[in-house]
Amino acid sequence: MHSPPHLSPHPLKYPTAQLSSMLMRIGGEETEAASGAWLDVINPATGEVLDRVPAGGKEVVDAAVAAAEQASAKWAAMSPRERGKILFHAAGAIREARGELARTLTREQGKPLPEAVDEVRGCANVLEFFASVSGCLSGDFIRLGAAGDGIVVREPLGVCGAIVPWNMPVILMGWKAGPALVAGNTFVLKPSSTTPLTTLAIAGLMEKAGLPPGVLNVVTGTGETAGRAIVAHPGIRKVSFTGNTATGLAVRQAAAPLLKEVTLELGGSDPMIVWRDADLPKAVDGALHGRFYNAGQVCNAVKRVYVHEEIASRFTEELLARVRSLKVGDGLSPSVNMGPIQNRAQLDRVAAQVDQLRERGEGRILSGGSRLRGPEHDRGFFYAPTLVTEPDPGAAILSEEVFGPVLPVMAVPDLETAITEANRSRYGLGASVWTRDLGVARAVFDRVQAGVVWVNRHLTVPPEIPFGGVKESGLGRENGVQAISRWTRAKSLFLGW
Ligand code: NAD
């Protein structure tokens, strides 16, 4: 009854259609890497090679920047609303093709098909949102008395870059490309080398829907090659990066000598505070959905639960039953509600984090705690949904980001402790409080160090609301109407009459 749609069995059926070719898209052309080298894209549910994409490096980034520069003047000269209209058509094309796109996303990323449909639809929503507010981009007029008048216009930055991780490749593409393109920039985007396929297909669809060639270029390659080349390219004026904190710091350092603007959306370890008056079924549902959606691979997933001691055992019992009932398997299977970890290296990382907790006796593992074995799971990268109670306050699973389906639950005696523990993290992306008491909600909002606080929900990130972190969770914000002007710079005109 309380199952969120994503974690319920899903009878969705979409035809398997052939998407456009999986070469890079540069200047509207499908392009191979000059080196002739390729990267395999692995289906994480089966371990099989699904497709391959060019292993691009500096030379393809140079070509993409040249194409973006060529498209720049014409695109920048259009009115924001004209650009918005094109994005609106593109969003329609994405929505129309959501079945095929979602299947591709499930096969390359692993998430259950309904979650993939959600993400593709989310990308269309984001583009529609930025299309709908495209006409809001405006400047200033300032009277300066006898001296004259000042006019400030917002102009596009030029060619911009985006680097995206593997957990939510499609929605993050929308967060970055939507406002940047409305603002009049042209773009070079690099998806993760393990999830490039849906992004390439979407870029092709956007061009078919009217986006001029060269406005959105997608290069494929590893972070070490194509990623570094984007950050180091002097023709790229701003880079929006989403990924882990260590890589984000390296990106910022590499961009600094070029005085390149960077937006960093990094890791998180979001606390969820469940107060004693919380609607318990709703809170249990929130924890389940907040942690195990996308197999726990969400930056703003619930990563630590602090529950009032009066309701801690009921909460844990009910959550445990729900966690145990999750069906883990290939996201294309209708009965599955949690997919694999996206790649083997990440599976190993999560397994090592839980193994360390077990070896050091730093908590009680109530369920899961290991890779899943058996005919359905042996070939893929599956980890059991894991619930841990009373971890040691110094345990690494509380201080590090755990990017997988592992949830620690701690009982707390009072709000002061909950807030203090919530803030005991180097991260500060999101946080939630589950209560009917407005005073409690207000205290958490005021005192928890985070970029976003939810009351009685977690995870939701609508494009209308600015999103981003504090502390080591990032720098800058994405989304919200303001996102468009963040992809512009002020240019001032002084009129001495
Ligand atoms: P990652 O940092 O390893 O990779 C992210 C992207 O950066 C990939 O495209 C990769 O190829 C590229 N890259 C790697 N090294 C690079 C370099 N030196 N220079 C330029 N690019 C480079 O991250 P990941 O493991 O793919 O993603 C998971 C992380 O992303 C988690 O920490 C998660 O919390 C974070 N994330 C944050 C948000 C947010 O909005 N804050 C959203 C989603 C994911």
Protein model, in words:
This protein has helices at 58-77, 80-96, 98-109, 113-132, 169-182, 197-208, 223-232, 245-255, 280-292, 312-324, 344-359, 396-399, 415-422, 438-447, 482-485, and strands at residues 24-26, 29-31, 38-42, 49-54, 140-143, 149-156, 159-163, 186-190, 216-218, 236-242, 261-265, 270-274, 302-308, 364-367, 386-389, 406-412, 427-428, 430-434, 452-455, 470-471, 474-475, 488-495. By secondary structure, it is an alpha/beta fold. The protein has a seven-stranded mixed sheet with strand order 14-15-16-13-12-18-19, with helices on both faces. The chain has a six-stranded mixed sheet with strand order 9-8-7-10-11-21, with helices on both faces. Strand 3 and strand 4 (49-54) form a beta hairpin. Helix 1 (58-77) crosses helix 7 (223-232), helix 3 crosses helix 4 (113-132) and helix 3 (98-109) runs antiparallel to helix 6. The longest helix has 20 residues, at 58-77. The protein is globular and about 70 Å long. The termini are far apart. 55% of the residues are buried. The model is unreliable at 1-21 (pLDDT under 50). Nicotinamide-adenine-dinucleotide is lined by residues 163-168, 190, 192-193, 222-223, 227-228, 231, 242-244, 247, 250-251, 265-268, 299, 401, 403, 429, 469, 474.
